[in-house]
Each structure stands twice: as structure tokens, then as C-alpha cells.
Design goal:
By secondary structure, the chain is an alpha+beta fold. It has 4 helices and 7 strands. The strands form 2 sheets. A 5-stranded mixed beta sheet has the order 1-2-3-5-6. It has a two-stranded antiparallel ribbon with strand order 4-7.
Length: 209
């Protein structure tokens, strides 16, 4: 009887260890699942925050264009606008304007950065975005301008730079690439002003060499 009792006790102890091990594993999985859910929630919150920032700066840039001189004919939707569903027009630059006096159309891609990276570098887009913007420029035969807000807030950036995509071939901008493209007058009155800003940068770089 003693041997049988010991055998039963050993078996019960073995079962209890298995149950405890299973409980520990289930708890580990539960914690891991909750951690992943929390990470996903934070990621989505961060995305929504960035989208709101982007939309706010888009509003600011739209306000820079005199509505009596320019018609806003396209505004690219965001994931929030489409409830996360992909819409083809999402690959376009953010805004498209038509100058009323001349009928000239152009795109504006809007970016806001709180600060630059090391040595004034700005990563303004990714490879897919750059390809899409270039494709839009060639297919629509309309220029694409990159409007970058730097520092300050999205409602009142410390500095704004405007670059013509035609001369940008990389996803990062070095300080010397954009520093001479600063927008001084934040009320755009004509398409030629955008051309002049980019032309001034080329002129400044020419005299520097």
C-alpha cells in the first residue's frame, strides 16, 4: 500500500507540475498578447497623431495660397478619411492647385518636421513615395513642389522651404540642398513665386561655386 500511495502521490505531483507549467505558459502568452495589443494601440495612436499633424500643416499651407488667385482642385485623402481602406489617389502628392489667371496646375507635397537630423539632414519621404511623386509629375505634366515646415508648430512653423521635385532624386535632403529655398513671404500670390524660390536657390548655388 505504501508503494502504491507513493506512486499515486508522485503521479499527482507530476500532474500538478504540468498544470502549473501550463498555467505559467498561458499567463506568459496572455501577457505577450496584451503587450502586442498595447504596442499596436500605441502605433495606431501615433499614426493618427501624425495624420492630424499632417492635416493641420496642410491647412496652413492651403492658407498660404491666395484663394482669389488659386483654386484647390485636389486634396489627397488619408487613412483616417478612408477608414484604413486604400484609395488609389492616396499615392498622389497632398494638394493640387490651379492658378486662376493662367490655368497652370501644380502639385504640392506637404511635410512638417519638428527638427532636422544630424548636420541638418531632412528625411522627407520614403522610396515608394518618391517614385509615386515622380510618376505623378511625369504623367500629369504638372510640376510638384515640396513644401517643408521646420520647427515651431504645424500652425506656425519657424521656417518653410519650397523645392521643385524636378531636381530632387533622393529621399533625404542635405542642408545645402534646401537652405536657399526658404519661403519668406507666406502669402503666395502667383505660380511664378514658387518658380522664383527654386530659381533663387540655383542662382545662389551658382554664385557660391
Amino acid at each position: 500500500m505504501g508503494f502504491l500511495r507513493n506512486l499515486i502521490d508522485s503521479f499527482n505531483a507530476f500532474l500538478e507540475k504540468r498544470r502549473e507549467k501550463r498555467r505559467i505558459e498561458q499567463e506568459r502568452r496572455r501577457i505577450e498578447r496584451e503587450r502586442r495589443l498595447e504596442e499596436e494601440r500605441r502605433r495606431q495612436e501615433q499614426e493618427r497623431f501624425l495624420y492630424r499633424l499632417g492635416n493641420d500643416f496642410e491647412d496652413y499651407v492651403i492658407g498660404m495660397f491666395d484663394p482669389e488667385k488659386f483654386e484647390l482642385i485636389h486634396r489627397t485623402p488619408t487613412n483616417d478619411d478612408t477608414n484604413g481602406r486604400f484609395v488609389h489617389s492616396m499615392v498622389y502628392p497632398d494638394l493640387r492647385f490651379r492658378e486662376i489667371a493662367t490655368g497652370r496646375k501644380f502639385w504640392v507635397e506637404v511635410k512638417f518636421r519638428a527638427r532636422t537630423e544630424d548636420r541638418g539632414v531632412i528625411t522627407w519621404c520614403n522610396d515608394n513615395q518618391l517614385r509615386n511623386y515622380k510618376k505623378t509629375m511625369y504623367e500629369s505634366r504638372n510640376p510638384v513642389f515640396i513644401m517643408i515646415g521646420l520647427g515651431g508648430t504645424v500652425q506656425n512653423p519657424e521656417k518653410i522651404f519650397c523645392l521643385n521635385l524636378d531636381r530632387i532624386n533622393f529621399t533625404t535632403l542635405y542642408y545645402g540642398t534646401y537652405v536657399h529655398n526658404r519661403v519668406i513671404n507666406r502669402r503666395i500670390e502667383s505660380f511664378e513665386e514658387l518658380i522664383d524660390i527654386d530659381g533663387k536657390a540655383e542662382t545662389d548655388n551658382h554664385f557660391r561655386h
